[in-house]
Specification:
- The protein contains 7 helices and 11 strands.
- The protein is α+β, with helices and mostly antiparallel strands.
- It folds into 2 domains: 97 residues, Orthogonal Bundle (Arc Repressor Mutant, subunit A); 120 residues, Sandwich (Jelly Rolls).
- The chain has a 6-stranded antiparallel β-sheet with strand order 1-2-3-10-5-8. The protein has a 3-stranded antiparallel β-sheet with strand order 7-6-9, with no helix packed on it.
- Helix 2 crosses helix 3 and helix 3 packs across helix 5.
- The structure holds zinc ion (ZN).
- The site of zinc ion (ZN) has 7 residues, from helix 3.
Length: 227
């Protein structure tokens, strides 16, 4: 689904959550790992916080109405309905906007500062810190530490993949993702991220299922990278 609204110029965050992801979040239907990424993005993105309020409102209405027909509406239609209703008060807490420090929903899961984590090297220029012990088939929830300028193997996704940029940046076929941005991808996207050469990139990722590498090198590396 296309992002329904973009805030350009004023908002330092330029890549946002999909409507479906926000509605799943509001309904409590996201896996815990993905909830964490959504929460991280919400700490820095007033735009998505406002949309999240709308999604909460939609969810509340659905529960109140208990009309099965309502549930058949698409996520975009539901959010459109909510937008036509009176304005909802939105929290103005924007203390983390533009702040590249670790968002609290992530920080609470880490045993210490990012610099002191026990990173595991998984490929040249790539280290990871796993945030759960689930088998790889169940999907990933981990921090990646990517050296400046490296290129990741081209891959696509079986299901949903969320990537939240904690520090640094990367660029792919979709755009330029920097600290605070979230990439909300589904199984139709094939991409080859290139890390910005200005600094190390720290990215938090959560997937529903293992990614599908589309090159032989990627397929060879996957068991080591573990995503
Ligand atoms: Zn956003």
């Amino acid at each position: 689904m296309n992002i329904s609204e973009q805030t350009i110029g004023i908002d330092p965050v330029s890549h946002h959550l999909n409507d479906e992801t926000l509605l799943d979040y509001a309904c409590g239907a996201l896996p815990v790992a993905m909830e964490t990424l959504v929460a991280c993005h919400l700490t820095v993105c007033p735009h998505c916080r406002e949309r999240n309020q709308l999604a909460d409102n939609v969810n509340g209405q659905m529960l109140a109405d208990q009309k099965p027909a309502t549930i058949k509406l698409s996520a975009a239609e539901l959010l459109s309905q909510a937008r036509s209703k009176p304005a909802i008060s939105v929290s103005k807490k924007t203390n983390a906007v533009g702040d590249k420090s670790v968002p609290r929903p992530l920080g609470r899961l880490l045993p210490g500062p990012i610099e002191s984590l026990e990173w595991r090297a998984v490929a040249p220029g790539i280290k990871q810190f796993a945030l759960n012990n689930q088998p790889r088939q169940a999907g990933a929830f981990k921090l990646l530490r990517l050296e400046p300028g490296i290129t990741l193997s081209q891959h696509t996704h079986n299901e949903r993949e969320l990537t939240y940029v904690v520090r640094g940046s990367y660029r792919d076929e979709i755009g330029h993702f920097k600290a605070g941005d979230i990439a909300d991808l589904d199984g139709h996207v094939e991409h080859k991220p290139i890390v910005g050469d200005e600094e190390v990139c720290i990215a938090l990722i959560a997937t529903d299922a293992p990614v599908k590498y589309t090159t032989m090198l990627g397929k060879i590396m996957q068991p080591f990278v573990g995503i």
